[in-house]
Specification:
Chain B: InterPro entries: Beta-prop_EMC1_1st, EMC1, EMC1_C, Quinoprotein_ADH-like_sf, WD40/YVTN_repeat-like_dom_sf. The complex is a heterodimer. Chain A is α+β, with helices and mostly antiparallel strands. Chain A contains 7 helices and 11 strands. Chain A has a 6-stranded antiparallel β-sheet with strand order 3-2-5-7-8-9, with no helix packed on it. In chain A, strands 4-1-10 form a 3-stranded mixed β-sheet, with no helix packed on it. In chain A, α5 runs parallel beside α7. The longest helix of chain A has 23 residues. Chain B is 10% helix and 42% strand. In chain B, β38 and β39 form a beta hairpin. Chain B starts with a helix and ends with a helix. In chain B, 44% of the residues are buried. The N terminus of chain B is likely disordered. The chains are: A alpha+beta, B mainly beta. At the A-B interface, α1, β3, β4, β5 and α4 of A face β9, β13 and α9 of B.
Chain lengths: 230, 1041
């Protein structure tokens, strides 16, 4: 009775051998993914997942029945990402593991061989959320717009006092400048570019009455041009 | 017209350029979305897979209910609150054969013949071991699926028990610590004897099987050495078993040798198993039993035997003698009660209990009788209770299991876990219901989103003729609420707590029971019909079930028959907007749905189809004759054989369900003269593709049908469909599926380019997607080196192919192409296997195709209102670009919004159990390749082509949720144009909202009202301060000028 049993044992072990390759590997825990609990249920698949193996509690996995061929190995993990690998299974006993960057051509293969059994580790953890924007008084006051506003307010309040303390000569110069500025501003707002360029081109021109007449002239000219065109 | 388009697109452009990213805040989790983790309906057919209580030893003993399910999930549910403790989702090809538990581990066998062995931690579900015992190709496909597999536990080593595993019906393997210690395969490879049980004792391992002999089965036992797996002895037991597996039980008490008990010619026989297998069968006299029931208490030597009159006896084996321990009184066949079900259970001291459960027709109660043979001072103790089981809500009890507690000597408490025919799992603690899990929601066949009506204001008080005094009184009464209103208004103004796009979709409080919508229409009703013959109304704001109805069997009432809704054949025949008569007086319309189901008998045969018409808000019957929402939802028989059904939506003229039967006759619902005349006015444009089997090759073909009307005998117009065209496909290609286009409002008929020319969209409403696969049986497919899958865009009126492409089949030869078509945009996903050439790579691809009219921009053929017979119909340009996507996809859909102005995102469910939203910007098929976008292209928001689609986790709308095995994604517009509701179903249910172009129509919740208030108040303060200063200055100027 013992003999046939042994024979059958042999037969079945042969049967297992003539099957295909069993791809083994292990996920090693690191800072990104310190353990099985953090990893959650994960599966290691070749290509579309027709051949696959689940990750066991110790991090190891095995994909049975891999026939010879070239495969892309990827890890289906919900919260962690892993590198994809290129696996070439030559025959029932040997497999070559190479790095592979997703989306790049498979051929020619990378010359750098990784050790077998496959060793993997998590490269990162997915972050699904954006942090909410919280209200921050200092941040609000520190923004350039606010700074300009505050500076402007301070200038409005502080300018008369500053002017009071200035010597008359520079005061006159300042007033002149200011008049020109306001003139320029007027020209800008009324869309009188000619007047503006004239102002820019003639810095000596400093009659105080000019802005009004200039503006009226310029805009009138403009209108005239337009009507002539049509 | 085009000016408006241009203006609109410009406005949208500005909107999009302002904020184009959409992402979720962590605080929104559970507010804007919900996720229901399910395990599926328990496979209650056999002890090998049905639910069972398991108490896990440890410092705090904890119980779980473990079950394998029809959805191929092994899961554990907490009996305390019904929450899911853990689950393991098996691959579809790896069907669970059986599971067994011992101590802290659960072991499962799955795949053909039990090819794969897995061991789980019973408390956490951690996978401790996964091992393939034999290749799935050599696995024995058996029916029932658990036949020929068995798991038996041996001694424990290092906390995990040794395993003896029977697979394929003829191989026994001894597994210690994940390694196969020995393996034994029967000499005849299972051709004569199929083993089905395994009993492990310290001296030998008994493999018990059945040998097929003339007209019956004979028991066969092989004893193996536990140490080496060598055969000690093998023997046929002279027996004749007629029903196979159900007619024998194995009792493996640890105290004595195991026994086999079987029924033969209405007598009970049993035999002791010794390693030498030399015992003789013995049969106690006058023990006339016709059936035996395995309680799972074989290790206690207990089982139930049933006499011919149906009376159940608890049988026990005591020191070599078989005796009836207890007879269940009045458990015989009766008109008042259903047949009894028996089960065994344990308490925390591992004392066995036997329970009998039956439904009483007269009392309408489920009664439980519980017998504990070792209590009551050793004489046995019978207790019982009844509870009101709502049979119109949950059908009938199809399985039960229980565990018991014995707090006082004469008191026994039980927790009963029921599986019902509608697929729910219920836990009853004595006679009070603890929780219900509606697991049939893992098998949804058809889904419709239903918009809810607005909350009815209290206008009913206001009479038509109201006198002055009564009016004054009413207004005074109303005025008492004014201070509260004022307070609310001030509070709202100050804090700025308006409803935003990410606030919870809680409805305004309603007084009536009818659900009502929220401000932005995020709260809708999801009506889902499951394959277990039940319809659910689910609140889209939180996933709660508002109502549920069982589908009645109609005219043919037969035991064991049920109604299976036909895939996606649920139609909204009336919406909130459809109001009868005057909208002012009638109020909002009541949405109504029509569902078509087929009647499936117990044998699996289908007879007839039924149509159910019901109120979507309450589930009440909507037909005028039966207006109730108690009892079963009754349907009307429509057609004996059904080819397809459609909804004819004639906008404000009404909606008609069109049913095409096997004889190509058209049935209308509702069938009135007005619907007939309505339908006859649409017959010219009504064209449907039908997938028909071809007799010759067993192949399918697509035949386009149109409608012809004739006047029948009763002078009523009759309609029938006639074939108009047949699509000729290349040889070896078989039709896989027909995917209709997703219809929705089209906001613009063209796309304005950066150089102010327009690409006019090819908007053919009659387009549908046709997927083909290599024909399995045709010789052409096998002879071809690599038969591929095909994807066609076909016009349903003429049958002309508008666009076609050939895709590679997966290595297994199957086609797994997922496609979605909306407006002029087709997106499909497939696996590209071709890597041998240079520059090629294996991987998943998503291809985006857009169809535009004419050859160049500004070409226009008015495709949206062109007839199919026009020769200009095929004058189109297709822009296509292919992208690499890192994951497999199980479902694909596009978002839909109320007016279609918002850009459409593609929502995919990937194999990584995530729901991912792919931005339209990345899927634009006109992205410039290999160069930077020009300023004109940049104005169009085009970005440089990159073959890899970014895998941005912030676009994973299901975030941390593991949404397993999604089969379909349905989207529905909210009242806000920017927002679309996304509902994914499969094993799990998941709902969220997405805003593809960000929420441009609501004030952004990031809008800082605080900042605004502070700035305004700061300015006010500044004015207060500067005003006197300025006045003083002016005064001064007047004095000194």
């Amino acid at each position: 009775m013992a003999r046939p049993t042994v024979l059958f044992l042999l037969y079945s072990s042969l049967f297992v051998l003539t099957q295909a390759f069993e791809l083994n590997g292990k996920i090693s825990w690191n800072d990104v993914c310190p353990g099985y609990k953090q990893l959650g249920p994960a599966r290691v698949i070749l290509d579309t997942g027709e051949m696959s193996g689940s990750v066991m509690k110790d991090g190891s996995f095995s994909i049975p029945n891999v026939s010879a061929g070239t495969y892309v190995l990827s890890v289906l993990s919900h919260d962690h990402w892993f590198d994809q690998l290129r696996v070439d299974v030559q025959d029932e006993t040997t497999a070559e593991v190479r790095t592979y960057v997703a989306g790049t051509p498979l051929n020619p293969p990378s010359s750098f061989l990784l050790p077998y059994p496959v060793a993997l580790e998590a490269k990162g953890k997915y972050n699904y959320f954006v942090p909410p924007e919280s209200f921050n008084l200092m941040g609000m006051l520190g923004s350039p717009m606010m700074l300009i506003m505050i500076f402007g307010g301070a200038m409005v309040l502080g300018l008369p006092y500053l002017m009071k303390n200035m010597d008359p000569e520079s005061l006159a110069e300042f007033k002149e400048q200011q008049a020109k500025m306001s003139q320029m501003q007027n020209a800008m707002t009324s869309g009188d570019f000619k007047g503006l360029s004239a102002l820019m081109a003639a810095p000596e021109d400093n009659r105080p009455a000019q802005p009004v007449s200039n503006k009226a002239q310029g805009s009138g000219k403009n209108r005239g041009n337009k009507s002539r065109k049509h | 017209m085009f000016g408006t388009i241009r203006g609109l697109s410009l406005a949208l452009f500005l909107l999009f350029s302002a904020t184009c990213s959409f992402a979720l805040h962590e605080s929104d989790v559970g507010v804007v979305d919900w996720h229901k983790r399910l395990i599926g309906v328990p496979s209650a057919g056999s002890l090998a897979t049905s639910p069972v209580f398991h108490r896990i030893p440890g410092r705090n003993t904890q119980s779980v209910v473990i079950t394998a399910t029809e959805s191929n999930v092994l899961g554990a549910v907490s009996p305390v609150n019904g929450s899911l403790v853990w689950r393991h989702v098996f691959q579809p090809e790896d069907r669970i054969s059986r599971f067994n538990k011992r101590g802290s581990v659960v072991t499962s066998l799955s795949g053909p013949g039990g090819a794969n062995l897995r061991t789980f931690d019973a408390l956490t579900g951690d996978l401790l071991l996964e091992k393939q015992l034999h290749s799935p190709q050599v696995g024995l496909l058996s029916e029932p699926h658990h036949l020929g597999t068995y798991i038996s536990f041996g001694n424990e080593t290092k906390g995990s028990p040794e395993l003896f595993v029977l697979t394929n019906g003829h191989t026994v393997q001894h597994i210690v610590g994940g390694k196969i210690k020995w393996s034994w395969t029967s000499e005849d490879q299972g051709s004569l004897v199929t083993y089905s049980n395994l009993v492990a004792t310290s001296q030998s391992i008994f493999a018990i099987g059945l040998a097929k002999s003339f007209a019956s089965y004979t028991l066969h036992v092989t004893a193996l050495s536990p140490a080496t797996g060598e055969i000690i002895s093998a023997s046929h037991i002279s027996s004749s078993i007629s029903n196979g597996l159900t007619d024998f039980v194995v009792l493996d008490q640890s105290a004595s040798q195991p026994h086999i008990v079987w029924v033969e010619d209405n007598t009970l026989k049993f035999i002791e198993l010794t390693p030498a297998l030399n015992a003789k069968p013995s049969y106690p006299k006058d023990k006339l039993f016709s059936k035996i029931v395995d309680l799972g208490l074989g290790s206690r030597g207990l089982f139930v035997a049933i006499k011919e009159d149906g009376t159940g006896h608890i049988m026990g084996l005591n020191s070599g003698f078989m005796e009836s321990i207890k007879e269940f009184e009045s458990s015989g066949h009766s008109d008042r009660n259903t047949e009894s079900m028996y089960a065994g259970g344990l308490d925390k001291n591992e004392t066995p209990y036997i329970a009998r459960v039956y439904w009483s027709h007269t009392l309408r109660l489920v009664s439980v009788e519980l017998y504990s043979p070792y209590h009551g001072d050793g004489k046995g103790l019978l207790t019982g209770f009844s509870f009101a089981f709502d049979t119109f809500q949950h059908g009938v009890v199809s399985h039960f299991t229980f565990d018991a507690a014995n707090p006082q000597p004469y008191q026994v408490l039980a927790r009963v876990c029921l599986t019902t025919s509608t697929g729910s799992i219920q836990l009853w603690q004595q006679d009070s219901l603890q929780w219900v899990r509606e697991e049939s929601l893992a098998n949804i066949n058809a889904v419709q989103f239903v918009e809810l009506p607005e909350k009815l204001s209290d206008s009913s008080e206001r009479g038509e003729r109201e006198g002055f005094s009564s009016r004054l009184g009413r207004q005074l009464r109303d005025a008492k609420d004014f201070p509260q209103y004022l307070m609310r208004f001030i509070k709202r103004f100050a804090t700025g707590s308006y409803e935003s796009a990410s606030s919870a979709a809680a409805a305004h409080t309603t007084t009536s029971g009818v659900p009502s919508r929220d401000t932005f229409g995020f709260r809708q009703l999801i009506v889902a019909a499951t394959s277990h013959g039940k319809v659910y109304g689910i609140d889209s704001s939180n996933g709660n079930i508002l109502w549920s109805r069982i589908l009645g069997l109609g005219s043919v009432v037969e035991d064991g028959a049920h109604v299976v809704p036909i895939e996606n054949k649920m139609f909204t025949v009336k919406t909130v907007g459809d109001v009868n008569g005057d909208a002012e007086t009638a109020g909002p319309g009541v949405p109504e749905l029509v569902l078509i189901g087929k009647r499936v008998l117990k044998s699996g045969a289908t007879t007839g189809n039924l149509l159910y018409h019901f109120n979507a808000l309450t589930g009440a019957d909507a037909t005028t004759s039966r207006k109730s929402n108690v009892g079963l939802l009754q349907g009307a028989d429509v057609a004996d054989s059904l080819v397809d059904a459609y909804l004819l939506n004639a906008e404000d003229k009404g909606k008609v369900v069109v049913i095409l039967d096997g004889d190509m006759k058209v049935h209308l619902y509702p069938d009135t003269p007005s619907t007939r005349s309505l339908f006859s006015s649409y017959t010219s444009s009504f064209a449907v593709p039908v997938r028909l089997p071809e007799a010759a090759h067993g192949q399918y073909r697509v035949v386009g049908h149109q409608i012809a009307s004739s006047t029948g005998v009763s002078k009523k117009p009759e309609f029938s469909a006639y074939p108009a065209w047949t699509l000729s496909l290349p040889e070896g290609e078989d039709i896989q599926s027909i995917i209709p286009a997703t219809h929705g409002p089209v906001a613009s008929i063209g796309k304005v380019l950066g150089n102010r020319t327009t690409l006019y969209k090819y908007l053919n409403e009659r387009m549908f997607v046709l997927l083909t696969e290599p024909h399995s049986r045709s010789s052409a497919a096998t002879s071809l080196s690599k038969a591929g899958c095909g994807l066609y865009l076909v016009d349903s009126v003429k049958g002309s192919v508008i666009y076609k492409t050939k895709l590679p089949a997966s290595p297994g030869g199957s086609c797994n192409v997922k496609a979605v078509l909306t407006e002029n945009w087709l997106v499909y996903h497939y696996f590209d296997d071709d890597y041998r050439g240079t520059g090629q790579s294996k991987g998943y691809r998503i291809v985006s195709v857009e169809l535009y009219e004419g050859k160049q921009p500004d070409d226009k053929i008015r495709s949206s209102d062109m007839t199919s017979y026009s020769d200009k119909n095929l004058d189109i340009t297709a822009h296509a670009q292919s992208f690499v996507y890192l994951h497999g996809v199980t479902a694909i859909a596009t978002t839909s919004t109320k007016f279609g102005i918002t850009s459409k995102d593609v929502i995919v469910a990937n194999t990584n159990n995530k729901i991912h939203s792919l931005s339209r910007r990345f899927l634009n098929p006109r992205r410039p390749v290999g160069r930077k976008p020009t300023t004109e292209e940049a104005e169009e928001q085009l970005i440089q082509y990159d073959s890899l689609l970014p895998d941005d986790p912030r676009r994973v709308i299901s975030h941390r949720y593991e949404v397993a095995n999604t089969r379909q994604i349905v989207t529905s517009p909210a009242l806000l144009e920017s927002t679309s509701l996304v509902f994914a179903y499969g094993l799990d249910l998941f709902l969220t909202r997405v805003a593809p172009s960000s929420t441009f129509d609501v004030l952004n919740e990031n809008f800082n009202k605080m900042q605004l208030v502070l700035t305004v108040s700061a300015l006010a303060v500044a004015i207060l301060i500067t005003k006197p200063m300025v006045q003083r200055k002016k005064l001064k100027e007047k004095w000194y000028q």
